[in-house]
Amino acid sequence: MNENVRIAVVGATGVVGREVLSALLDQGVTSEQLTLLASERSEAVELDYGEDTLAVEKVTPDSFRGVNLALLATPAAASRTLAPAAQAAGAWVVDASSAFRGDGNVPLVLPSFNPELLGAPLKGRIVSVPSAVSTALVSLIAPLQKAFGVVRAQVTAMVSASSAGVIGVSELEKQTAGLLSGREPEPHAFPQRIGFNLVPQVGPFMANSPWTEEEAGWTLEAARLFGARGETPVIAGTAVQVPTFYGHGLSVHVQLKTPAPVEQYRAALKTSPALKVLDAPAEKVYPMPMLVASDPAIHVGRLRTFPQAPEWLTLFAVVDNAGRGGALNLVEAGMRLLQRSA
Ligand SMILES: NC(=O)c1ccc[n+]([C@@H]2O[C@H](COP(=O)([O-])OP(=O)(O)OC[C@H]3O[C@@H](n4cnc5c(N)ncnc54)[C@H](OP(=O)(O)O)[C@@H]3O)[C@@H](O)[C@H]2O)c1
């Protein structure tokens, strides 16, 4: 990469932001090329970057002057003002929040699925990436769709506490310790107690709807990603907040158009570089959150079919939500945008 390129990481102190720094280091980006930004709460906080230590600055519209690429790992409300500010300053912008995922003027890009959009003519300079669960779902469905056609996918997503960012992680820590000492905690980051509990609500509900925004997002994002290629499988299900820290689990039932033996489904999943098939249950080999930390591959296993309904494939998958499902999409999309001439 040209050494004059300047990259701003906004939300650098967060769960996704810290993973972005790790991915940029892997890409050979130097500390001189980086500006770390967050809200005034984190002004002057120091973060390690390789051998160096960088101070976080409070973001202002002026922060983007001279910046070529702005990676936004911020809440949607912040992204809605920061993305246009960075765009106006001439930067390419990749946003990890839900702010632009439904905006037809902003491409929704999963770099392992539709990278071609990043080289095509664009209306603006803002690009959005899908949620962690959508990243996993689309990655799982894509090779099955190509080989057999997919009618629908029914999902139960077991969403870890880090989906709610730094405050989600610290709330699970505090509640677990408090409950073990006999203290009943007050929920703040989650709608109900998360320690030693399961909560069938992740994020807010849609207005006048039984679906949460998280669940509705899977349908919307799948429609945008698959829709551009033709047929969109119906994707629906339940998001459950679970008391693990990192790594989302997905129990998925996929209905195929052309039924096949389970070995053929497994072979199709193995063709995808985005996936790692861990499927030897007799040897206790299957996907688990504890195996996926910092693994760029989505783990998939427990493949099964019923003889009476071979068109339904049942599987279990795990994605590193902060890394694969957030930071890596931001960095991979950003690096490709920097390769464009304009
Ligand atoms: N966590 C996941 O698994 C995941 C996966 C994919 C996508 N995402 C999306 O990525 C984004 C970040 O999520 P996260 O989990 O990393 O959240 P987080 O841990 O809460 O971090 C949020 C970051 O944004 C900064 N921030 C908050 N308000 C700001 C403002 N008004 N101006 C500038 N910076 C501000 C925070 O800075 P301070 O330190 O100053 O508060 C912090 O650095 C969200 O939109 C989320 O939906 C998350």
How would you sum up this structure, described in words?
The protein is of the alpha/beta class and 342 residues long. It has two domains: 7-130 and 326-338, Rossmann fold (3-Layer(aba) Sandwich); 133-321, Dihydrodipicolinate Reductase, domain 2. It has eight helices and 14 strands. The strands form three sheets. The chain has a six-stranded parallel β-sheet with strand order 5-2-1-6-7-8, with helices on both faces. A hairpin with a 2-residue loop joins strand 13 (298-306) and strand 14 (309-319). The mean pLDDT is 97. Residues 10-17, 38-39, 41-42, 59, 73-76, 78, 96-97, 131-132, 162-163, 165-166, 321-322, 325-326 line the site of NADP nicotinamide-adenine-dinucleotide phosphate. It comes from Hyalangium minutum. InterPro entries: NAD(P)-bd_dom_sf, Semialdehyde_DH_NAD-bd, Semialdhyde_DH_dimer_dom. Residues 6-120 form the Semialdehyde dehydrogenase NAD-binding domain. Belongs to the aspartate-semialdehyde dehydrogenase family.
Bound molecules: NADP nicotinamide-adenine-dinucleotide phosphate
Low-pLDDT stretches: none
Q: What is the first-to-last residue Cα distance?
A: 16 Å
Number of extended strands: 14
The overall pLDDT, averaged over residues, is 97
Strand content: 15-25%
The main β sheet shows up as: 6 strands, parallel
Please work out how many helical segments DSSP would assign: 8
| Rg (C-alpha, Å) | 20 Å
CATH architecture designation of the largest domain: 2-Layer Sandwich
What is the 3D form? globular
Percent helix = 25-40%
InterPro entries: NAD(P)-bd_dom_sf (IPR036291), Semialdehyde_DH_NAD-bd (IPR000534), Semialdhyde_DH_dimer_dom (IPR012280)
Family: Belongs to the aspartate-semialdehyde dehydrogenase family.
Protein name: Aspartate-semialdehyde dehydrogenase
GO molecular function: NAD binding; oxidoreductase activity, acting on the aldehyde or oxo group of donors, NAD or NADP as acceptor; protein dimerization activity
